[in-house]
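User: Second chain of the day. Same drill as before.
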Amino acid sequence: MLADRIPEIQAALADAELDGWFFAVFQGNDPVSLELLELSGRAMVTRRCYYLVPRQGEPRRLVHDLEPAMLDHLPGSRSHYLTWQEHRQALEQLTRDCKRLAAQYSPKNELPNVSRLDAGTAELLRSFGCELVTSAELAQRFAAVWSPAQLEGHRRANAHLHRIVKEAFAWTGDHLRSSRTVDEHAVMRFILEAFDRAGLHTFADPTVGVNAHAADPHYEPTAESALPIRQNDFLLIDLWAKEKAADDSVYADICWCGVVASSPADRHEEIWRIVRDARDAGIDFVQSRWPSTPTRGFEVDDAAREVIRRSGYGEYFIHRTGHSIGQQDHGQGANMDNLETHDTRRLLAMTGFSIEPGIYLPGDFGVRSEVNIALTADGAEVTGGEPQRELVRMLA
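Assistant: Same format as last time:
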């Protein structure tokens, strides 16, 4: 809980020579603030509220008269406003003596998952004499680090995902061997039912893509769009979930590929091996450096991406190598990214992320291989089970 971590936050502010950390919440504008201020899932954040942790002294709360108890679960003094004139006066008073102020802001929107403070509020704070500094490292330290219990829950969820994805491929193969029809949507439903039996929850349905649909990294099968799965097809399954039992459980997220054949076509095998080797290059890079050598997100992306570039398919690797994993599938920590963003954040102990390179050939097929890594004191652990080594052969 944030209330228990105020001294730790204040020490981090002192180390960074910052005068305070500013949180601004209005509806669902900022996942970092919502999570740290324990407001996630609250439907009635309909008026602007603010929380400021100064480098010294007690925290400060600012709330609207219509929602006066919004931050009562957090420590600190409380002020309030009703009119827009009072709002400006109260906000200036809230940020008093804060010349260098951390906020969910990223210069030039370099890191969009941290760049949540709206331009108007930023202008207002600067008019009070505040210099805004990105909270990217603070947010990672206080919103992305897992507890030991969260790590154990992630491991369990990931083990379930490995079991379920293998069962989904086997179930599909059984249908086809017995001449029963099966399509992408049916496989998706099979996975969701398996999640429910395993006590898992997901915020969005898994990706089940055959052939050209596998070349769309975020394809979502529906009953209307689903393609039938037939002999010699290529099938990609991307699935993510977390345990229902704990409110603060964290996600696991993996992707496997297979062919509806006793052995893959040469083209399928070629692309698969390149992607697998890129994945392993990313894993090896992290494991060879952790924890002795500071490592930044963009460096991991470079290590995996170079394998695909050298193979001549660089233009078909159209997303970052990996994303932070937390209570949301895409968490608040460093991403393995030097494509969509230049993520310079350092990898931290007790955080987790995916490594998931891919090659997507429009109109033909796509390959992605995804594992999760948890950084612990013992090393960089690939969680959930052995990474996929070969394409699943559904008719073997």
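The longest strand covers residues 234-243.

User: Great, on to the next one.
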